[in-house]
Amino acid sequence: MEKTWKKACEKKVCPPDQIESFVAGIRQAGKTIATLNGSFDLLHAGHLQILFEASQVGDCLIVALNTDRSIQAYKNPLRPIISLEYRIEMMAALEFVYAVTWFDETDPRSILSKIKPDVHVNGSEYGLNCIEADIVKAHGGRIHIVDLVPGLSTSQIVQKVAAIH
């Protein structure tokens, strides 16, 4: 049977207004949930490493992406480089990502309060006392910190590309 790229990716996409019922199904199956959030603009090896590690601390990894408007509000009005539609597809294409959702706020606390992850994963730059910690812990979850890959960030990549031109 022939599948289109979009059809293959759609199976892993869960709109925010459906996330609570989606998560209920996962919990009913007795599985644990890990979450990771971010913009994941210009997907690179550093992103892949944190995504993979996040997938190892729970049965199902749900990635929550910042919308384009969210990124423009908290990072830069000229970002993202890759629109939400395509960032969702990239995440959904990864074997170790169970599902992808998104949020329009500048931080993920609202979507995390709906998901109620067992483990929320963050990069070491945010630490254990990250903005998400109180919401995650209030629902019995914990924070897991992953060391970043030195020299690999979207901002650094953008700077290198700009320097070339």
TrEMBL record:
GO molecular function, one term: nucleotidyltransferase activity
InterPro entries: Archaeal_FAD_synthase, Cyt_trans-like, Rossmann-like_a/b/a_fold
Listed Gene3D superfamilies: HUPs
Taxonomic superkingdom: Bacteria
Pfam annotation, one family: CTP_transf_like
Coiled-coil positions: none
Keywords attached to this entry: Nucleotidyltransferase, Transferase
Keyword Transferase in annotation: yes
UniProt domain Cytidyltransferase-like: residue ranges: 36-140
Claim: Transferase is one of the keywords in the record: yes
NCBIfam families in the cross-refs: cyt_tran_rel
PANTHER family linked: BIFUNCTIONAL PROTEIN HLDE, FAD SYNTHASE
Protein name: Cytidyltransferase-like domain-containing protein
UniProt source species: Parachlamydia acanthamoebae
